[in-house]
Amino acid sequence: xxxxxxxxxxLSKVIALEGAEAGVTCNTVCPGYVRTPLVExxxxxxxxxxxxxxxxxxxxxxLKEQPTRRFVDASDIGAMVLFLVSDAxxxxxxxxxxxxxxxxxx
Length: 106
Hints:
Distance between the termini: 21 Å
Radius of gyration: 17 Å
Largest sheet: 2 strands, parallel
Low-confidence stretches: none
Order of helices and strands: HEHHHE
């Protein structure tokens, strides 16, 4: 999974560089934990494997290193994408934008 994420960041940089003169922008949105069915499954599996509650998995494992101590809301990601496709972001290109509750600030 990590290689795929790095590949997406690299691809967006190349697209940004090659499309710049034509006004094309390209960025990578990098969300932290979002409460999706996949994450819910992982929480349940971790609770079972460690013999702890799902609430403890969330607090002590998943969100332990995230300063906000909460999941990223899908609407936050949507708002970032909406900004990126707006004219206000015409100079934002070739970058990876974390939306992870401060996790990458560590």
